[in-house]
Amino acid sequence: MTDQTILHVEGLQVALPADADRPFAIENLSLRIRAGRTLCIVGESGSGKSVLATTVMGLLAKGLEIRAGRIALAGETLLADGRYLPQPRLRALRGTGMAMVFQEPMTALNPVHTCGEQVDELLRTHTGWPAAKRRAHILAIFERVRLPEPARIYASYPHQLSGGQRQRIVIAMAIVLKPRLLICDEPTTALDVTTQAEILKLIAELQAEQGSAVLFITHDMGVVAEIADEVMVMHRGQVVEQGPCEQVLLQPREAYTRMLLDAVPGMTPPAPRAPAGGPPMLAGRGVSKTYVRRDWLGRARHNTALHDAAVAVHRGETVGIVGESGSGKSTLARCMIRLIDPSAGIIQWGDTEVQDLSEGRLRPLRSRVQVVFQDPNRSLNPRRRVGSSMVEGAINFGMDARQASQTAEQLMDRIQLPRQALERYPHQFSGGQRQRLAIARAIACQPQVLVADEAVSALDVSVQAQILDLLRSIQAELGLGLLFITHDLRVAAQLCDRVIVMHQGRIVEEGLTSEVFARPAHPYTRKLLAAAPSAELGHRHAISQ
User: Fold this and answer.
1) Ramachandran assignment for 506, one of left (phi > 0), alpha (psi -120 to 50 degrees), beta (any other)
2) Which of 80, 84, 94, 542 is 20 to 30 Å apart from 263, CA to CA?
3) Using an 8 Å Cβ cutoff, are 3 and 34 in contact?
């Protein structure tokens, strides 16, 4: 393997707007990544990780200003004296010289074009291949990132795919031209553990084939342990600690690094809580969902995403749903909260059957069941200040404006954001901060049941621990029921009283979390548990083999 330096950043300084909580997003940062090596960057939300990635790509957000520094890609200077290369050259380098996997796939994909068209655009721009060769190459890449039915995915629009499938499309776009530098901003956040393992293996193969360098941003210490050659720890725009992976994870020098490592949830569930009495606050029996799509000749194609599922959530109880992307987790949740209509089954909110109610009759009941989506951008209106978005639902359900405003301020304290941030817009927050705001917005409606669809998947480990503590305290205060959809088995282990395991639209196993994790009965459950990343360095060899 060559020792050629692929990415060299020297003395980078990026200033934040004047009204920000600190002067610099990045302050005097330097790094070097050689061919075939992986540098993992970890740190809490808002530490400057994503700003570094977009600065390297020449995609710096408005309001940020480069004050100093130099960036070079494989010896070619991209940035010097505050100026980038001319835009035509930068565009030529994106895709072939460097590529980026963004944290939020819905912001990276065009909703009006099919997924295949969007990948094909890259190949049309950077290669002279005929259409048939481009299509064959795209289908092969889709198969490599474990997308089911590549031909169907090629013709699908982003909204027709699950969150994990959309993320795999974005990864496919990044690797399709085998770039020298691959920048991954939380690329496995939305992926289940088995697909995550495949993606990490795929990135390792790309390094072996091309000698690519990887800048990998993550909050998952298990992923860091498996893939990193070196680790950089960032906090509030500054490099706190940097060194070989073994040294940083096993012998951290700084207290902040030790705090991040201590916040990683374990795979051993706590002792189960006593089951709640009384009828369930949210229940479903025989819930199924079949989608019907018609081709241009009008012929119907049926796709059953959910088969005869049952779930019950009692007062003060947390029920987790785990499984791979596309297993039916989110489909079940959306049926239960009537965001989509089930094809069959009975759904109850308290003692009220809601599966056949019109939206007009449902609307007064919706304060009972609130949802936190995987992507916070679906909960926060980009044109409204977050304070206005946070109180909107509570006011719609009858809370007076003054009480709603007080509730919003108290929730800001609980999610550890300054109250004055209520006057900001969503784009002025990091991805993790936006997710905290989305959780607070749902809680402001004072629901009986909260449905969280991958609600902590975008959060760093320390903030994730704070949010899990917040959910526990709210349950203790309000008796809130929680239906928690997650692909992170460690989070499920620490939060959920009971767990449901789904595979290909069916429930294959369920029971107390402690029992399912200790003695899994179904082979698929055992496969999931075996694929969960470990923070122990001894497991890292599995990825490189």
Assistant:
1) beta
2) 542
3) yes
> With contact defined as beta carbons under 8 Å apart, do 199 and 171 qualify?
yes
CA 124 to chain centre: 30
Phi/psi for 363 (5° steps) reads -55, -45
Rg, C-alpha atoms of the chain = 23
Pairing outcome for strands 318-322 and 498-503: parallel
Q: Are 535 and 249 in contact (CB under 8 A)?
A: yes
Beta strands 213-217 and 181-185: pairing type?
A: parallel
Residue 427 near residue 99, CB atoms below 8 Å: no
Q: What is the DSSP string of 91-110?
A: HHHBTTTEEEE-S-HHHHS-
Please give the model's pTM, rounded to 2 decimal places: 0.73
Alpha-carbon distance values, 25 to 45, 48, 63, 165, 215 (Å): 12, 5, 11, 31, 18
Structure tokens at 501: 């395991």
Residue 468, CA distances (Å) to 410, 471, 472, 487 in order:
17, 5, 6, 15
Burial 50-63 (b: 16+ CB within 10 A, else e): bbbbbbbbbebeee
Given this model, what pLDDT does residue 429 score? 84
Q: How many residues does the structure list for the chain?
A: 545
Strands, E assignment, 363-480? 369-372, 449-453
Give CA–CA dist 63/395, Å, rounded. Answer: 33
Within a 10 A sphere around the Cβ of 152, how many other Cβ atoms? 17
Q: Is 283 helix (H, G, I), strand (E, B) or coil?
A: strand
Q: Which residues of the chain, if any, have pLDDT below 70?
A: 1-2, 189-190, 276, 431, 458, 533-545
Per DSSP, helices labelled H in 299-430 are: 329-336, 359-362, 386-396, 401-414
Task: Retrieve residue 2's tokens.
Answer: 């060559």
Collapsed DSSP state (helix, strand, coil) of residue 297: coil
Query: Domains of the chain (ranges plus CATH)?
Result: 5-105+180-262 (3.40.50.300), 315-334+354-544 (3.40.50.300)
CA 395 to chain centroid: 29
Q: What pLDDT, on the 0 to 100 scale, is given for residue 190?
A: 63
Cα distance between residue 269 and residue 496, in whole Å: 8
* pLDDT number for residue 206: 74
109 by Cβ neighbours in 10 Å (0-12 / 13-18 / 19+) ranks as buried
What span, in angstroms and rounded, lies between the C-alpha atoms of 458 and 435?
A: 7
Are the C-beta atoms of 336 and 281 separated by less than 8 Å?
no
What integer pLDDT is reported at residue 354 of this predicted model? 94
Return the pLDDT at 542: 36
Helical (H) or strand (E) element with 432? helix 431-443
**pLDDT at position 458:** 66
